[in-house]
Design a protein that fits this description.
single chain; 276 residues; alpha/beta; Rossmann fold; 2 domains; 9 helices
Amino acid sequence: MKRPGKSDPSRPREDGYDYKREFYRSSTVAEDYDFHRFSSPERQKRNRRKWAAICKALREATGVRTILDLPCGTGRFTGALAREGFEIVGSDISHEMLHKAASLEKENKAAGQPKAIRGYVQANAEHLPLRNDSLDCVVSIRFMMHVDPISRVRMLREFHRVSRRWVIIDYRHCYSFRYVLTHTFGRLGIGRPPLSRVSRKELDKEFADNLKKLETKVADESALAKWTYLLPNWTMESLLKKRSELLESKKEETSEDKANSPGALEIPGIVPTPDQ
């Protein structure tokens, strides 16, 4: 029986978020993904531990009904969360992964398993196409280890924006025997390159640094509060009227300039503006 190995097509060959973001957008990778990660007893055991941690976190949370699973990949936790009674939306930047997740869900439905997956959304975690406070919880598993600190901050802001109550994420840390072994062999040139994993100190520093930036931003905005004025309607109407007249005159000037220009082209559907 074939076992998952280093030559599997869904095993990344490089590190770095930019590389991996594109790497997983492949139908070949999506087809092999579950086999590489969950087909051996050891990997199934790791997956069960991860699922137990998610369930523990959700038990400690309250008022959770709707969940965004991101990145959902092929849906390894999306379906499991749905079977626990939650209403789930799966999301991933990879259309290929979402297609695989949807096909597996179809197989589960045919087998008589109940459906509580509300749909799948292809999205970049840095710019989610969701409204503010649109779900009760965001679950993001086995993801932050791939992401650089700057992108990670943008993602956490988005998670905070779309979640009404909770965000459950995991960070791959450097306190496991497996990490020490793999990292040591990697530094000696045996096996894969050294893994990038965070320490508690690094994680605390990352949060502290961004908290300091946030506090500075709030302080700067508070300092500007005393310069905020309320203007009467008649004053604003006067300003807007003058601006509209100015824009109209600019538009006329632009039209005349284009008409007099020997190389001017008229493109259907494109309306020139003063800024063009």
